[in-house]
User: Fold these one by one.
Assistant:
Number 1:
Amino acid sequence: MSRTAELVLGLIGSIVGLVAGFWIIAYGNDVTDYIQTFTYLNGAVGDSIATLGWITVIASALALIATLLIKKSPRGWGVVLTLIGIVMFFVVGQIWIISGILIILAGLMALFRVPSPKY
């Protein structure tokens, strides 16, 4: 079964997440007022803009790897994509909206897409 839709959604979501993560790392201190509004973490991790950026980059890289391997094991990597997408909403919040939605959709499609019958 072709998993092109999952692959495309996951790639776009992962790349957008990588761009957002590097944006947070590079320009986070200049827009601290905005960045503080979208994190759900308190304490040392939530107060460090660079840490939030690196967490976003790492999660996006894992999502990219999961997306590239989704054709080999759709259910397993679909679970990984869905979990990354959901957990990252709580870690970085609003900056993750676009990439999170795309990654969650890719993961759910991989989980619940029914293979076509072979006659």
Number 2:
Amino acid sequence: MTLAIRSDAFDDGEPIPRRFTGDGDNAIPSLTIDGIPPAAVELAVICHDPDAPGPGGFTHWTVYGLAPTTTTVEDADYREGPNDAGRSGWYAPKPPAGHGAHHYAFTVYALSRSVDGLPSRDEFLRSHVDAMVGQATLVGTYER
């Protein structure tokens, strides 16, 4: 089985419902993970918008410490790292009005070693690229 991430809230490539955005309830969409590689000792999930203005896009959520037996993120124990708003936790999509559709990539990383602390997305990607034994992405869109 291949590593996969999906949501009951939206299908891959489809719009994210308003309740999961900054224009709605700021709710975190449900995420289900399947096909976790046997070599995984930890999972991480990152939501990133590459279409956001500025260099490198905008990271909306960093999640570390998910057990390799996790199937639904909302039912799991995890640590929330920093987002690009300078806080920890979920920062719901709210792109600039008239900016067109933004793509929100929810990526699950299966790791062969644990993540220490609460690194930023960039710090995590630099320090754990060699520990990635699998990754999968679900993309939702939103525009205002």
Number 3:
Amino acid sequence: MGKKDKNKKKGKGAEKTAMKTDKKQAARQKKMLEKLGEANIADIIQLLEAKEGKIEAISESVCPPPTPRSNFTLVCHPEKEELIMFGGELYTGTKTTVYNDLFFYNTKAVEWRQLKSPSGPTPRSGHQMVAVASNGGELWMFGGEHASPSQLQFHHYKDLWKFALKSRKWERLTAPNGPSPRSGHRMTVSKKRLFIFGGFHDNNQSYHYFNDVHIFSLESYQWLKAEIAGAIVPSPRSGCCIAASPEGKIYVWGGYSRASMKKEADRGVTHTDMFVLSQDKNAGDADNKYKWAPVKPGGYKPKPRSSVGCTVAANGKAYTFGGVMDVDEDDEDVHGQFGDDLLGLRFDLPDMEIAGDPK
């Protein structure tokens, strides 16, 4: 009896210590923000939303190329020879700027145009966007994050947006039971459904990586209650590669996460594994029932990487380019090794290859 009570007190003591640590970190951050003269992130987001609300009319004009940035989205127009770019962020080493500008690049005219439309999304990076041909063309976007200028504060979004390419209007969807706030997730579209996988949430004091799957119907405009069977699932991660095969299977490869290694220290993990998500045909009504299976692709063996660009071409192959892997990481600094190879994945084998390699 006494031993049980003793263990219980130990547990309470650990909880109290964690709470004290969180309070100290919060107090320290508050002092730093006051010194910098930076507003609370919630107030920053509120001001940005008010700014979007003041835009009264749709405007579109020829413009210079977009300014330097990272973690934006770039998709192809479903009907025209255009590229569509939204958002992103720029970090100068001392200050972060986050964008919500929407650009169209005409590949024939070699021309950039910027479009402004009332009541659109606030600035963000690390979000995801896909384009579909329905109703004259639509853009669908989910999540992302907004970092304060000092990068001491982060706001993660859980909003779902649709942009109608015909009317040039934004619409925010408010369907319940969607994913939690996150960025660094991945999204693809297959058979009139959006598939969202993974991502992370970071408030600069603690972080969490995800490996959940969320499915949104582009027909009913509802989040579906997807059931994932089996014990085999990808480990939590962000920045992975996701692609839908012509048959409707969803492939996930690579990505990044952090894991605790010792007291008050953790390390980044760059993943090399591949998984496929498919409907569970043995589960009776299989429409919303899925299962993961590991995949061991043949062919070329690429180096570990995350933050990879990925798209599926008209020939049915998935193509990826670039990516980064942390190397020489210590408690104070991290150095990245960046890739510059173009890889192709055949879904029928599956088989990885260096795209364009005459061999």
